[in-house]
Design brief:
By secondary structure, this protein is of the alpha/beta class. It has 2 domains: 185 residues, Glycogen Phosphorylase B (Rossmann fold), CATH 3.40.50.2000; 154 residues, Rossmann fold (3-Layer(aba) Sandwich), CATH 3.40.50.2000. Helix content is 40%, strand content 18%. It contains 13 helices and 14 strands. The protein has an 8-stranded mixed beta sheet with strand order 3-4-2-1-5-6-7-8, sandwiched between helices. A 6-stranded parallel beta sheet has the order 11-10-9-12-13-14, sandwiched between helices. The longest helix has 18 residues. It is elongated. 43% of the residues are buried. The mean pLDDT is 90.
Length: 368
């Protein structure tokens, strides 16, 4: 079985990265694995046994043209059976075109819930066009890998064939150490680990903080992450008079210290596909408050191993945080259950096996 992947993860081209190691592991279960990375970089073809990788730079149109030509060439050169695209939009379109040209199988992956709510589509005219394109491509895929039942349901509701959809969550693997800070006099700490981008809605946390401080005067919020909305997040905190209680720490590779300090971990997003931070918080034995996105209702169940609040509701978010503060027994019970449920999640090895099995299924004659 020979497989080509279209990806946007530049770390695949870094031999010291976990992404590179993951692709190498995948390659052990196929005859040939090739990866084309659509990132803003150029890289020579790297040959690591059955694992080939290359990347392209230039403007988006130029990258897509180069990727199309490389796909077209590699399909013939390596007798490819399956092309898989990380998303159903521009890269999905060229992958589908090449697969159709050579009459081979085509898979598309959705790691984000692009069709579950309207937030993403409303961000731009471009996204509205991409939503139409993506649905057109998904309906023509021989296989679709999604990371949650929520995404599957949204696709099925839009007439995508359910039999072609495989729910394969991201492998629950973290390198975080589970320990509690012993810092004396530590304020009650709400942790947000997130990119500072519109869909992550970190300003919901700043809008909730005045309510939280009304019930927990010594509360503080730590935001770990970076992005284009950094200025907006701090401006929101200043305008609400709680800037001294909101601390932006920027991007941090090692998160052990921050999770150790956290009393509650909050996910305030408008939309999520899976939610790595949820899994990290579960692994660290921390109580979770999250909006009704991603794995809410699937991995996190309200009142059992976390608290779920409506999207973009600052009052409900604050109420949930205060509830955990005032009821430490509840907070501990939720955190303990979350840790126990983390242990039951599929491992990276199980995810890999499920991906390989899905590819094998696509190649069976009865899977048209």
């Amino acid at each position: 079985m020979n497989v080509l992947l279209l990806s946007f993860d530049p770390y695949i081209l870094d031999k010291t990265s976990e992404s590179y190691d993951r692709m190498t592991r995948y390659s052990h279960d196929v005859d040939m694995l090739g990866v084309i990375v659509l990132s803003r970089l150029d890289a020579d073809v790297q040959n690591h046994g059955p694992f080939l990788a290359t990347g392209f730079s230039g403007n988006p149109i130029r990258r897509l043209i180069r990727a199309y030509k490389t796909l077209d060439r590699w399909v013939v050169q390596y007798k490819v059976d399956i092309i898989s695209s990380q998303e159903p939009f521009e890269s999905g379109c060229i992958a589908w075109l090449v697969a159709r040209k050579h009459n081979i199988k085509f898979e598309v992956q959705l790691h984000g819930d692009f069709y579950g709510n309207s937030f993403w589509k409303k961000q731009s005219l471009k996204n509205r066009f991409r939503a139409v394109l993506g649905l057109y491509i998904a309906r023509r895929a021989h296989g679709i890998r999604v990371v949650s039942e929520r995404i599957k349901k949204s696709l099925v509701s839009l007439a995508v064939k359910e039999k072609n959809i495989s729910v394969i969550p991201v492998g629950a693997q973290t390198n975080l150490r589970q320990y509690q800070s012993t810092e004396e006099g530590k304020p009650f700490t709400v942790l947000v680990v997130s990119r500072l981008t519109p869909e992550k809605n970190v300003t919901l946390m700043t809008r909730a903080m005045p309510y939280i401080k009304g019930g927990i005067p010594h509360a503080q919020c730590m935001v770990v992450g970076d992005g284009p909305q950094k200025v907006e997040v701090m401006a929101s905190a200043k305008s609400l008079g709680i800037a001294e209680s909101v601390h932006l720490h920027g991007y941090r590779k090692n998160l052990d210290h921050y999770y150790a300090l956290a009393d509650v971990v909050v996910i305030p997003s408008y939309t999520e596909g899976w939610g790595r931070v949820v899994i990290e918080a579960m692994s660290c034995n921390k109580p979770i408050v999250m909006t009704d996105v991603g794995v809410a209702g699937e991995i996190i169940n309200d009142g059992k191993n976390g608290l779920i609040v409506p999207i973009n509701d600052a009052g409900a978010l604050a109420e949930a945080v205060i509830k955990l503060y005032k009821n430490p027994t509840l907070a501990q019970r939720i955190a303990t259950q979350a840790r126990a449920d983390f242990e039951k999640l599929p491992s990276s090895q199980e995810t890999q096996k499920n991906m390989i099995d899905a590819w094998k299924l696509m190649l069976k004659p009865e899977h048209a």
